[in-house]
Amino acid sequence: MREILMYPHNEWIEVAGRKLHVEQIIAILEPILTEDRILSIDKILPKRTRNIAVVLEQIYDLGNINAVIRSMEGMGYHALHNIKNDKLTKSNRITRGADKWLDINQWDHTKECIEDLKSSGHKIVVTALDERAVPIDQIDFSEKTAICFGCEGFGASTELLELADQTCVIPMDGFSQSYNISVAAALSLQYIQLQRKDKLGFHGDLSPEDERIVRANYYLQSTAKPIEYLMKHLLAHPSNQDILNRSDF
Predict the structure, then answer these.
(1) Tens of pLDDT along 93-114?
(2) Which of 51, 70, 117, 126 is buried deepest, with most CB atoms within 10 A?
């Protein structure tokens, strides 16, 4: 089963049982946001990527999950897929942090997560110490890719490895064979970001439509009591009700 923890990446967003179009949300909330917040969002959106997704499989340490989320947000990654771990739904430390700026998907099973990513055109790359693994700098991240990290201590599951298109390692020059998951993720994400900038000239890849969806979500996250404000606005402007039910907005 898939659970979307934050607002879904969709042009129609359900708010208090009512579906609002992203353009409606933007139009209502933008006037009450500060100029600095809008400028920050304007600056950040072109640097966001959905083509590179991050997958965490059975990560049990909440601190590691939080560290990966912070690295993702700081480097412009937008899509996180978390498998077999409900800690994201239970931690105030997480939900009040960087994750509110990400598209987070919670999955019960590895296979359904990976199959969903493959159906959207993502190549599956798993960090693992197996015989197929190549150094991460031999992987082409200019195309749609899901970079996957397995649990602490045991690494990626057999199921995840069998579903992988490629496996990779971060080269090391010491006696240790691997990094802590949060360190490995940060190093990998930084390398991917730099490689994409070198090959493509940019890291961000949101389409104009995606940018509007993400903007609406960021406006919701940037507003105190956004649901209450939206409902009050709609009650005060009943002519807007018809717009919300149109499919051709």
Answers:
(1) 544 467 899 999 999 999 999 9
(2) 126
The verdict on 190 and 211 lying in the same domain is no
| 123, two tokens | 């190549």
Lowest average pLDDT, out of 12-21, 123-132, 149-158, 194-203, goes to 12-21
126 in the same domain as 17: no
Q: Give CA–CA dist 110/127, Å, rounded.
A: 15
- Joined together, the tokens standing for residue 17 give 């049982």
**Helix, strand or coil, per DSSP, at residue 105:** strand
Count of residues making up the chain: 249
- In this structure, the answer to whether residues 61 and 177 fall within a common structural domain is yes
Whether the pLDDT of residue 144 is over 80: the answer is yes
Please give the C-alpha separations between residue 203 and each of 16, 52, 108, 233, in angstroms, as whole numbers. Answer: 35, 9, 30, 37
Prediction pTM value: 0.88
Please determine, for residue 238, whether its predicted confidence score (pLDDT) is greater than 70. Answer: no
**CB-based burial, 195-218: b 16+ in 10 Å, e otherwise:** bbeeeeeebbbbeeebbbbbbbbb
